[in-house]
Amino acid sequence: MDLEIIVQGAQAESKPELKLWLRLLSTTKLISHEIRRRLRAEYGATLPQFDLLAQLYREREGLRLGELSRRTMVTNGNVTGLVERLEADGLVIRETPDGDRRVTVARLTRKGEALFSEMAAAHEGWLRDMMADVPPELIQSMLREVGQLKGSARNHLSGAEEE
Amino acid sequence: MDLEIIVQGAQAESKPELKLWLRLLSTTKLISHEIRRRLRAEYGATLPQFDLLAQLYREREGLRLGELSRRTMVTNGNVTGLVERLEADGLVIRETPDGDRRVTVARLTRKGEALFSEMAAAHEGWLRDMMADVPPELIQSMLREVGQLKGSARNHLSGAEEE
DNA sequence: AAGAGATAGTTTAAATGTCAAAGGTTTCGC
DNA sequence: GCGAAACCTTTGACATTTAAACTATCTCTT
Question: Cβ distance B38 to B45 under 8 Å?
Fold first, then answer.
């Protein structure tokens, strides 16, 4: 039924970190699958595209592809293809600023703004629905605790990422 | 820096469900990236391969591909390719039982068992390390709360999945 | 037994994902 | 100003992902 089966056999009592990780992973997978399904069914969009549009929606003047890559946690080469497809759909345009010709900036078109604002409203509703059985206080405390977990993880990366 | 930027602009105060979701997503992405990097660097393995091997490690007599698909939350077609590559590496073997020739069962080889048991120990250590700054009580309470969230999400899927 | 229907895996196409290497551009040191 | 270093993006090779079509096999009803 679940990723958690990995350890629930012999020694599930110990290893709380592993157990928490598997539960986090299976939960986000569950919710992601659902959101992906609905995005596809109702808007013909994919989840990575939605994420990318979301970033551009917040920065109306556009973002450099490298910045998009950092914000969406998607690799550089991947952003290239994503933006290409979104541009083909007329949701995004690419421009090279005068100052620095190494740079490519992606920006939402009018059509992209309109579509994303629809999708965002639906997306938020889906989440509220899926979390309907969780009391508001729990949501608040999870927010805090997951934040702490994230901080801990960030402090113990092998890579060179700081702050 | 993060997925959470999606909403932190104008009206971050409201929409706690959305905020929690974005934080969950960015946290699991962060940890996944790190685990993937280390699995690749130290064992030349990918995360989905690790997940699949983990399932087989728990069921030494092997699992049908469909069951593997369900447990890893990976689609059917995907399991086919994964097992193919693992078989090519000599970590897994495929067999068709006598009773039902539609069925394919995947099982770990001696080599697969040895490799996975190494990887699993390292994997657990990485997690303990990344969660080092989180007090044990918090880990326990997150375990409970995330479980509740997962239950809620499962109850509000549009798909036909029950229990 | 025949055939409809269910089930198990595989295959396919399009998209996403990684990493590493290659491309142009800009900037810096001198 | 020139060459080297640094920067930004693209490209290429390959693995993973989803959804849907397809093949093979089994089961059940009649």
Answer: no
d(CA A3, CA A45): 27
B158 pLDDT band (50/70/90 cuts)?
Answer: confident
Model confidence, pTM = 0.89
Domain A15-130 falls under CATH 3.20.20.70: no
In chain A, the N- to C-terminal Cα span, in Å, equals 37
pLDDT, tens digit (0-9, with 9 covering 90-100), for B2-17:
545 544 444 455 899 9
CA dihedral of A146, A149, A153, A154, whole degrees rounded to 10: 70
Mean pLDDT for all residues in chain B: 89
Distance from CA of A3 to the nearest CA of B (A): 6
Q: Strand (E) positions, A96-135?
A: 105-108
| The residue type at A161 | E
Residue A111's φ and ψ, nearest 5 degrees, are -60, -40
Q: Which residues in B lie closer than 8 A to residue A32 (C-beta atoms)? A: 25
CATH class belonging to B15-147: mainly alpha
Q: Which residues of B132-149 are buried (b: 16+ CB within 10 A; e: fewer)?
A: eebeeebbeebeebbebb
Q: Is A3 on the interface with B (CB under 8 A)?
A: yes
A114 touches chain B (CB under 8 A): no
Contacts of B132 (CB under 8 A, 6+ apart): A152, A156
Q: Which of A6-15, A82-91, A114-123 bottoms out in mean pLDDT, i.e. has the lowest?
A: A6-15
Q: Domain coordinates of chain A in residue numbers?
A: 15-130
